[in-house]
């Protein structure tokens, strides 16, 4: 399989990257979770649910004023616009949904829907 290595590792990666970037936007330090601690779909789902509760208020209060605010991160000298980062997070998840759909078809399973309508976004 391509991508991060496995379906479970890809799901963990999606959750981890989304949370890390949005915490950067919030100015919040993140204790990086270790994938070895999330070796079941139930644990990854619980982590996702926990993170979503934390991020929901920030995302619900998003305004146009945040769109061009500048984000500086510790690992590079580059600067990013908040809106650009938020759209990157969305595209990142869609990219991996495509991978998961291909893997599901390879396993003769129902592919994951890439339809974002009705997902409460």
TrEMBL record:
<feature type="binding site">
    <location>
        <position position="96"/>
    </location>
    <ligand>
        <name>a divalent metal cation</name>
    </ligand>
</feature>
<keyword id="KW-0479">Metal-binding</keyword>
<comment type="similarity">
    <text>Belongs to the DinB family.</text>
</comment>
<dbReference type="InterPro" id="IPR007837">
    <property type="entry name" value="DinB"/>
</dbReference>
<protein>
    <submittedName>
        <fullName>DinB</fullName>
    </submittedName>
</protein>
<dbReference type="InterPro" id="IPR034660">
    <property type="entry name" value="DinB/YfiT-like"/>
</dbReference>
<dbReference type="Pfam" id="PF05163">
    <property type="entry name" value="DinB"/>
</dbReference>
<dbReference type="GO" id="GO:0046872">
    <property type="term" value="F:metal ion binding"/>
</dbReference>
<feature type="binding site">
    <location>
        <position position="13"/>
    </location>
    <ligand>
        <name>a divalent metal cation</name>
    </ligand>
</feature>
<feature type="binding site">
    <location>
        <position position="92"/>
    </location>
    <ligand>
        <name>a divalent metal cation</name>
    </ligand>
</feature>
């Amino acid at each position: 399989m391509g991508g991060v290595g496995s379906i479970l590792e890809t799901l963990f990666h999606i959750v981890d990257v989304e949370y890390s970037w949005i915490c950067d936007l919030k100015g919040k330090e993140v204790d990086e979770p270790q994938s070895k601690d999330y070796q079941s779909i139930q644990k990854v789902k619980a982590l996702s649910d926990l993170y979503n509760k934390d991020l929901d208020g920030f995302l619900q209060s998003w305004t146009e004023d945040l769109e061009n605010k500048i984000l500086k991160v510790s690992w590079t000298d580059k600067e990013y616009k908040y809106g650009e980062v938020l759209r990157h997070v969305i595209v990142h998840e869609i990219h991996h949904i495509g991978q998961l759909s291909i893997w599901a078809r390879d396993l003769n399973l129902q592919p994951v829907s890439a339809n974002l309508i009705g997902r409460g976004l």
